[in-house]
Structure formats: C-alpha cells, structure tokens
C-alpha cells in the first residue's frame, strides 16, 4: 500500500498539505516568471507552465487526505493539548 509506505518513510499529512499550498504559490511564480523571462514566447506558454505545476496541488491534497485517514486509523495522528481543550470547549 502506497500510503502505508509513505507513512513509514516519515511523510505525514501535514507534509502533503504544505506541499499542496507551496505548489499553488509555485504555480503563480512559474507563470509570472515565464511571462517575464521568456517575453517572446507569449502568454500561451506561460499558461502551459502554470497549468503544469498547478496540477500538482490536487494530488498533494489527495495524498494529505489519504495520509490523514491512515493516521487516524493506525493511531499515529496526534493532537496538542490546546486542540483537546478547544474540542472539549465546543462540545460542552
């Protein structure tokens, strides 16, 4: 199972979520960089680069969800004391 192997390698859901958010920022940077660094190639090429990198985000979010689900079921999902207090305060 790929998710178990990723988890055993030390990759957690937070890592996948961080990678997803970073890829969104990288998408904008690659698109803008392609426009300014390659002025003769036009908007179409910049759009293609932006879309290429932009397709990574949903994959990373999906991996994050799968890893989170795995962590919840194998007991390695940890919460801080503040998380527990917040949960208790909202449930009464």
Kindly summarize this structure in a few lines.
This protein has helices at 2-8, 13-37, 43-54, 56-74, 81-91.
Write the layout of secondary structure elements.
Layout: H1 2-8, H2 13-37, H3 43-54, H4 56-74, H5 81-91
Commentary on this structure:
The protein has 5 helices and no strands. By secondary structure, the protein is mainly alpha-helical. The chain has one domain. Helix 1 packs across helix 4.
Shape: elongated
Residue windows where pLDDT falls under 50 for at least 5 positions: none
Nearest-integer average pLDDT: 82
The helicity comes to: over 70%
Order of helix and strand elements from N to C terminus: HHHHH
Number of self-contained structural domains: 1
Largest sheet: none
Number of separate strands: 0
Helix segment tally = 5
Euclidean distance between termini CA atoms: 39 Å
Short descriptors:
mainly alpha, 92 residues, 5 helices, transmembrane helix, membrane, transmembrane
């Amino acid at each position: 199972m790929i998710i178990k192997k990723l988890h055993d390698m030390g990759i957690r859901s937070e890592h996948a979520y961080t990678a997803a958010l970073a890829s969104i920022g990288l998408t904008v940077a690659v698109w803008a960089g392609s426009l300014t660094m390659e002025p003769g190639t036009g908007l179409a090429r910049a759009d293609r680069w932006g879309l290429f990198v932009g397709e990574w985000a949903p994959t990373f979010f999906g991996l994050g969800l799968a890893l989170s689900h795995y962590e919840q079921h194998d007991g390695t999902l940890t919460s801080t004391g503040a998380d527990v207090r917040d949960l208790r305060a909202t449930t009464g």
